[in-house]
Amino acid sequence: MENSDENVKFGICPECKVRENDSSEKKIYQCPYCKGWFCEKHIEPKLVITWNVIERTKDPILKEKLYEEWRKEGGHPCSVWTMQYFENLEMKEKEEREKFLKVLDKIKKLEEINLYAKSSEVSKKKISSKDVAVVLVVLLCFFLIILLNYPTAVHYIMVYLFIVFVLFLILVILK
Q1: What's this model's pTM, rounded to 2 decimal places?
Q2: Which terminal residue of the chain has fewer beta carbons within 10 Å of its beta carbon, N or C?
């Protein structure tokens, strides 16, 4: 953390005094957040949070971040920095959520475009009545060839089938 000459003086670091029982005077720096005075070892701000609060945190990602901050060596508990930390964390989460929702919207739009394209392809592949008529005419020709070449009992069956196909062809054409 950078400090200008006006943010540096000689004095007793409160963290050294409490944690290490060191009341010696040394160069101390002013924290830009809480404006407290600390030595070089304790100038970095830390979260004002207890182990129990971390343990009760349900979000595993946030819990890991809080553990990481809690384990940092040195530093001093800084309430101003703690509030800024959580405000920044909230802003980052909000930005990430918005980005995620934008990506989901893009994916949804792409899927809608793909579904529209697929449905138009399917409608293009529908069988028209002309196609059915052509197939029926080919079948009728096939039956007509069989009728002319084989005058037996099969002949009567073929005649009935021929009449059914002709009627079906007429229905398709008139549709």
Answers
A1: 0.52
A2: C
